[in-house]
Amino acid sequence: MAVTIHDVAKLAGVNSSTVSRVINGKATITPDTKERVYAAMRELDYHPNSLARSLASGLSGAIGVIVDARDAEAFSNWFFARSLFAIEREAQARGYQVIIANGAQSKGGNIETMMKEHKVDGLILPPTTVKPSLMKTIGDFPYVVLGTPDTLSSQTSWVDNNNGQGAEMAVRHLQEMGYQNIAYLGGHEKRGFTKRRIRGYQQANTGKETVLATDGTTENAYETALSVLKKTGHPDAFVCNDNLAAFGLLKACRELRVHVPRDVGIVAFDNYPLAEYTDPQLTIVDIDTAMLGEQTAQLLFKRIENRAGNQQIMLSTTLVKRASTERKAR
Amino acid sequence: MAVTIHDVAKLAGVNSSTVSRVINGKATITPDTKERVYAAMRELDYHPNSLARSLASGLSGAIGVIVDARDAEAFSNWFFARSLFAIEREAQARGYQVIIANGAQSKGGNIETMMKEHKVDGLILPPTTVKPSLMKTIGDFPYVVLGTPDTLSSQTSWVDNNNGQGAEMAVRHLQEMGYQNIAYLGGHEKRGFTKRRIRGYQQANTGKETVLATDGTTENAYETALSVLKKTGHPDAFVCNDNLAAFGLLKACRELRVHVPRDVGIVAFDNYPLAEYTDPQLTIVDIDTAMLGEQTAQLLFKRIENRAGNQQIMLSTTLVKRASTERKAR
DNA sequence: TCCCTTCGTGCAACCGCTTGCACAAATCAT
DNA sequence: ATGATTTGTGCAAGCGGTTGCACGAAGGGA
Hints:
Two copies of one chain form a homodimer.
Chain A: H1 5-12, H2 16-24, H3 31-44, H4 50-57, E1 62-67, H5 72-75, H6 78-93, E2 97-102, H7 111-116, E3 122-125, H8 132-138, E4 143-146, E5 158-161, H9 163-176, E6 182-185, H10 192-204, E7 210-212, H11 218-230, E8 237-240, H12 243-255, E9 265-269, E10 283-286, H13 289-306, E11 312-315, E12 318-320
Parallel strand pairs in A: 1-2, 1-3, 3-4, 4-5, 5-11, 6-7, 6-8, 8-9, 9-10
Antiparallel strand pairs in A: 10-12
The structure holds a DNA duplex.
């Protein structure tokens, strides 16, 4: 049916192993032979069967990216999508495919399946999957966690942005701008990165501590903000767990005629493209998702190639100052 | 090294072909034998090598989703991510992997590579890739276009939402609400779906025609809106090509103190989660991305399984009425 | 009871490529 | 010039499954 390495070999008048060597460049081949092989490949429009190649070499040539999203919302999550873009770019540069799978436990996205059935040569995992049981099944199979695992973090490889530092920066900036009663709004309190952000908030905050965790939705952030802002002596600033929470907060402020940034200052994590189009524009803790994805992929490939030991990479965040914290009119 | 089908066969006291048949359920096997095989598999923690399986069966067990995104922005595009979520779900239900690749022309994302090297059994393509040259190389390889191709649309399989109908609905709604001078804002004029939306706008619009194409960015929509709204006799309503354009428009309205919905009505395509948190909330033409992804995947699998002929599926859109078009106070 | 199906399983040839080993030819050192 | 290397290529055994064919055993009909 399809043209195989043998067809090429026959046409070029050499053995198939020679063709294989030409393709892989793994041996010294006479320029003349090489040229004949290339000519034959061109003439026959030969494309090596990657399946056969993988089987023989024992390498699938793919990496898997596992997500743990219940709904489309989480999947289309800006953070994840941007990182994925960078991961794909790195993989492509190395000739690897990227397989995505949702649901670490479900049959299809099963981590064990992916590795034991040789579907991938390495995995990028969400922090939620890191548990002693995983460590046992995964053995020395190459993987990198995108985010900080809640446990076993020193025994795993991971790449994450420094959430604590980001929150501290946010709080300090608000304090500098004259806000004194700073609250933290949004985020599942169980999620590791939220916890770390809250800790950072607590460490930098010198005023009253108010942690307003939500269920992670914009709606819930809105409701929470609404009830808090109705009370007298409410916070005069908020560090939001993400842009979604900030949108909810902004809506609450509008409805209650609470002026931002005069009455309330806002800093939000993440840098959605729309954060510049709110009223007022949002000051944000920017996460370099491109760098995050790139570093994650690079670390994974390092581990795939030479089984390097575990390694942790912490990326710092950047504060982008915009109108939502400009208390004093300029 | 790894445990193979032969190890299982030996332990179960049968031939490896029997084990294969048990795994694939492709033949009648004595319950007793079957049980012994399962027991052996369990005992040895056997996982079939998917690579070997693919090679022997000639099926990779994966589908490829090609994207054509220059920057992370387009990749993290809400529309694409949501559809991808649904595609992945369908694939997983059928035991297929999903490989994503960016850049139809680049080496890694090369459509030809994907199919000729047997990396995937089918492809989901962006409409921009549909050209006569592609048709030639792709032959009868199963693929489905996610979106409407600009050319050859009757000779390809595709799934799309009805953009023309959506725009017509938007215009009619605006007219019903009393707006008379309706403009179309945003979108690359070269992009097929924008063209179709504009055509729908033109068909339903009974007033003056104003098409304000942009470069697709929020910033450009903002600038365009700003200059248009400064003129007297400016449009009293806009159909926006997407939520991003609407955000730009809203910002321009705010700055110029143009009241929405009193002075200007807005309908935008897409239903970002944040469209409910703008001021005022946006009336939108909702695209069922989950359905889109699902239908696309289903059609692809249908084509993979029985080489069904080309087929086109057009999904209708829904208008979600919100405050941005509520001209008369309720 | 005897012949004809149907059923359950084994045999062995692939699927298309990689790679260790072998060996002739070419290159080098002395 | 000659033995020791190095270089280029072929041979064939895998990699771990799938599957058409064959055949004995079991089941069915008359």
